[in-house]
Amino acid sequence: MTMHPHKPVTFGQTPLRIEDVLALANRQAPTRLQDDAAFRECIAKGARFLDSLLDKEGVIYGVTTGYGDSCVVAVPLEHVEALPRHLYTFHGCGLGKLLDAQATRAVLAARLQSLCHGVSGVRVELLERLHAFIAHDVLPLIPEEGSVGASGDLTPLSYVAATLSGEREVMFNGERRLAADVHQELGWTPLVLRPKEALALMNGTAVMTGLACLAYARADYLLKLATRITALNVVALQGNPEHFDERLFAAKPHPGQMQVAAWLRQDLAIDAPTAPLHRLQDRYSLRCAPHVLGVLADSLNWLRGFIETELNSANDNPIIDAEAERVLHGGHFYGGHIAFAMDSLKTLVANVADLLDRQLALLVDVRYNHGLPSNLSGSSAERAMLNHGFKAVQIGTSAWTAEALKNTMPASVFSRSTECHNQDKVSMGTIAARDAIRVLELTEQVAAATLLAAHQGVWLRSRAEDARPLAPALAAMHAELGKDFAPVIEDRALEAELRLCLARIAQQHWRLYA
Predict the structure, then answer these.
(1) Which of 132, 149, 202, 228 could bridge across to 335 with cysteines, CB 3.0–4.6 Å?
(2) Local confidence band at 48 (pLDDT 50, 70, 90 cut-offs)
(3) Confidence check: pLDDT of 60 > 60
(4) Which domain holds residue 454?
(5) Do 225 and 350 share a domain, yes or no?
(6) CA atoms within a 13 Å half-sphere pointing along the CA-CB vector of 296
């Protein structure tokens, strides 16, 4: 990625931001674990209090009882040590694709930050080993399917607990390896999880929250990219830049909507003299772009609040209050806030796909593109009957948009009663987060296609005798795109260029607005 190096990320009592998780997930920032005496004592005190309860034969869910509806089943003290291994073992039933490296790092970060609150009853040694996994990039292989989002991400997080214990598989130095072999290579002794430690690792929202951090960052960049694409399309379609007048938006002052309009004014140099207008009002996909994109812009702040509060919370059960010497049984593993945030985000992002898809449909259609050639083909008149330019790209974009829109069904309303009706109302937060990532993937494909088409449209427009120079921001973007994407004159297969454009989007390659 082309981002500036990030400051070190410290796990501990200082809250993390989404940007910290993103930097860590992309291996752009060093990490450290808070290690002052007061912090270490805070963590150790919870583990000591738990041990004292075991000595007194206290009844603690998941420590001296079974799990879920088995909480009524007492576990004799001589078997308490075996209970954590059984928990991560029987949850080793995940299916589906494996989380990629970026997502896995985000999951590890979210779980470690939660445990740093000191109310989960785990040892300092567990935090140190989990941090060592992050620092050495030892990545558990985590199947992404199998969580209903309460009691947290039990099944996917069982792969974290198991690999810390030297079981199952990890990705290390680009190779799929047995966790036990990697422990040995690094000179580590696999952990034998203490009572409550497997539960503390698994009974939380780390998978959905890690994915949510990544989804937020992608959506934030996509907002800016879609605005820049819109500006290019206003030029390509000879649109009316006065649709973005500052006085107009003062009459309906949603802050995000005003920001998008301001970016468009900046890109289009709206205060400069303009050419005679072809029409008073452009179609909605241009004229209403700030209104569509502004909803996403205005929503990002409250989405950030939901995600970062969850990231910096003790989303565990039970909570171990060593100061008051109490064990508090509750439901902090419930991922409702992340579920709602991700269900909302995928709808917001799908609307971006729909907007850009409509812009592309205008670009390729001679009835609406105001003098551009059919399908944006740059071929000569003598070869026009053979060449079809962006015709198939527009078909593909329509397919990607339709799939994105289809995936906006809210996952959070599909709660399922599970685990003998103990988990009888669940969040579905992890499914919502995975849906959001999929909608982002599809919308980024739409953005890549529309960006290349807009670039082609601007190039075609620049060849006209009455062509006007681009404003500085758009001129710089058009020139930079030209280094990677030559004009389409004779038809060529565009898959490789679309994939390169997608890679540029993933890298957040283009600097877009301050």
Answers:
(1) 149
(2) very high
(3) yes
(4) 212-317+332-506
(5) yes
(6) 30
Determine contact, residues 231/268, Cβ cutoff 8 Å.
yes
Q: What are the structure tokens assigned to 476, written together?
A: 């710089």
Would the pLDDT of 38 be above 70? Answer: yes
pLDDT at 201 over 80: yes
DSSP for 136-178 reads TT-EE--EEE---SSS-SHHHHHHHHHHHTT-SEEEETTEEEE
SS3 10: strand
CB of 290 within 8 A of CB of 244? Answer: yes
Cβ 68 vs Cβ 151: under 8 Å: yes
Check whether 1 has a pLDDT greater than 70: no
Mean residue pLDDT across the chain: 92
Counting other chains too, the contacts that 174-178 makes at CB distance below 8 Å and 24 or more residues apart are 176/141
State both tokens at 478: 């058009």
Question: Does residue 326 belong to any structural domain of this protein?
Answer: no
Amino acid found at 362: L
| Closest CA relative to residue 152, chosen from 64, 74, 87 | 87
Would you give the end-to-end CA distance of the chain in angstroms? Answer: 18
The pLDDT assigned to 70 comes to 52
State the CATH number of the domain containing residue 461. Answer: 1.20.200.10
Check pLDDT > 70 for residue 468. yes
Q: Do residues 82 and 199 both lie within one domain?
A: yes
- What does the block give as tokens for 444? 């980024």
**Structural domain count, the chain:** 2
Do 95 and 226 have their domain in common?
Answer: no
Q: What is the CA radius of gyration of the chain?
A: 26
Does the structure show a pLDDT above 90 at 54? no
Q: Check: CB of residue 135 under 8 Å from CB of residue 188.
A: no
Q: What percent of the chain clears pLDDT 90, i.e. is strictly above it?
A: 81
Question: Among residues 263, 456, 258, which one has the least CA distance to residue 359?
Answer: 456
Q: To which residue do tokens 């009888």 refer?
A: 424
How far is CA 485 from each of CA 169, 443, 498, rounded to the nearest angstrom?
A: 41, 20, 9
Select from 160, 175, 204 the last residue of a domain.
204
Pairwise CA distance, residues 375 & 395, whole Å:
11
Active-site residue set: 61
Sequence letter at residue 222: L
Q: Does 52 reside within a domain? A: yes
Name residues whose C-beta falls within 8 Å of residue 436's C-beta, 6 or more positions apart in sequence: 211, 212, 215, 342, 343, 345, 346, 349
Q: What is the pTM of this model?
A: 0.94
Domain presence at residue 1: no
The domain boundary, picked from 160, 181, 204, lies at 204
Q: Determine contact, residues 61/320, Cβ cutoff 8 Å.
A: no
For 392-411, give the DSSP string: HHHHHHHHHHHHHHHTTS-G
CATH code at position 176: 1.10.275.10
